[in-house]
Amino acid sequence: MENEETICRGSCSENLSAVEDAIYVIGGKWKLKIIIVLQEFGNVRFNELQRTISGISARVLSNELKDLELNGFVKRIVHSEQTPVLVEYISTDYSKTLKPVIMSLSEWGKNHKQNIKADAF
């Protein structure tokens, strides 16, 4: 019995650590929104991203894109042969591994909203 409890505690600690790591990488107000937009629209220019995600400032968007690029979720494509230089952002194959997580979160969010509305009235 004691051995099973130790295993469960280790597993719980491992799961908590993994969730903490995931939230650190994709958490916050904007990162998942950026990933979703890039997955839905494909190649997107900076200003188009900013227009699509209402409320995000250029500075915050720039910082979030840098973080997402460092973590392998976004690729920055520079078309230097054009004048002015064209910069686009695209989601990577790695970011597409988040699709099931995003879909689950979306479904949970819809259900939660329904539950709150049902309880409120």
From TrEMBL:
Coiled coil stretches, renumbered: none
Source taxon at top rank: Bacteria
Gene Ontology MF terms: DNA binding
Ranges where the HTH hxlR-type domain occurs: 12-117
This protein's UniProt keywords: DNA-binding, Transcription, Transcription regulation
InterPro entries cross-referenced by the UniProt entry: HTH_HxlR, WH-like_DNA-bd_sf, WH_DNA-bd_sf
DNA-binding found in the keyword field: yes
Regions crossing the membrane: none
This protein's name: DNA-binding HxlR family transcriptional regulator
